[in-house]
Design a protein that fits this description.
Elements (H helix, E strand, L loop, with lengths): L2 H15 L6 H11 L6 H22 L1 H4 L7 H31 L3 H20 L17 H12 L8 H11 L4 H27 L5 H29 L5 H19 L1
Helix pairs in contact: 1-2, 1-3, 1-10, 3-9, 3-10, 5-7, 5-9, 6-11, 7-8, 8-9, 9-10
Length: 266
């Protein structure tokens, strides 16, 4: 398989799994085991960062009208961004403080498999129990308080554990707090913008730009693929959760964790 085609595969996987509660990190690592890229270690690390950034850019494009704070009668947009900023603080602080530790101790298949399984069970338990069927007190973005935003930010910290899923943690956190599913998902997507943009900037500064032309071409193809796929998946995800719960994703996570465990055992 050519390197450009591999890049497309990685972009497709990232574009799909970033927005589904199934852990994009786990899926990218699985794909990397089977179709290993010829990129240098630093280039591969930057590649994964850039395709994640492409996913975030897709959200900005899709919701540009709701997120653009300049113009007339935009006070509500500034207020939304203030809440997004509050929600981003816990993950930003924890990520900076624990980055080295997480990379050294938690980037392991045992952790990823365990997270996939445990959160899969949790998804089903929460959705089928009284919490998933409870009354909703937050039915719009404007109804989210700053305390709500901070609490969702704390749920986002859980996603620092590989295999957890950032979108899954925050959306289910919102449901537990009484959010409408679609509102929880939309705010979760918005929360990803500053966190992922900041993480990407730090990685770029750390890794630099000293890569070959072919490596940049591979990164560009993956970036574009992830962006285009994310445009479609975000729309589908929002439409899906308006009338479905997370039980299907919980079952998928459990099955995937068992398959991966079997692969590594046998």
């Amino acid at each position: 398989m050519s390197e450009l085609l591999k890049s497309v595969v990685f972009g497709v996987v990232q574009g799909i799994t970033e927005w589904l509660p199934v852990s994009s990190t786990a899926h990218l690592l699985v794909v990397d085991q089977f179709i290993q890229s010829a990129l240098s270690p630093n280039a591969k690390e930057l590649f994964f960062v850039l395709i994640q950034l492409a996913s975030i850019l897709a959200v900005v494009v899709l919701y540009f009208e709701q997120l653009w704070p300049f113009g007339s009668s935009k006070q509500s947009v500034w207020l939304l961004w203030a809440k997004i900023a509050v929600a981003s603080v816990p993950a930003a602080v924890a990520g900076l403080a624990l980055d080295a530790y997480l990379g050294a101790h938690l980037q392991r298949w045992s952790v990823i498999i365990g997270s996939l399984f445990c959160y899969g069970v949790l998804y089903i338990f929460l959705e089928k129990g009284p919490i998933g069927k409870g009354a909703r007190r937050v039915e719009s973005l404007g109804a989210i308080s700053f305390v709500d935003a901070l609490m969702l930010g704390l749920f986002q910290v859980l996603a620092l554990i590989p295999g957890t899923s950032r979108s899954g943690s925050t959306i289910l956190g919102g449901i537990m707090m009484g959010f409408n599913r679609a509102v929880a998902a939309q705010f979760s997507f918005f929360m990803a913008i500053p966190v992922m943009a900041g993480a990407s900037l730090l990685k770029v500064v750390k890794l630099g730009f000293s890569f070959s032309g072919s490596e940049w071409a591979i990164m560009a193809v993956g970036f574009l693929t992830s962006f285009v796929v994310s445009l479609a998946v975000v729309k589908v995800m929002i439409a899906y959760i308006k009338s479905h719960d997370f039980s299907l994703f919980g079952a998928y996570r459990i099955i995937l964790s068992l398959v991966l465990a079997a692969i590594f055992i046998f």
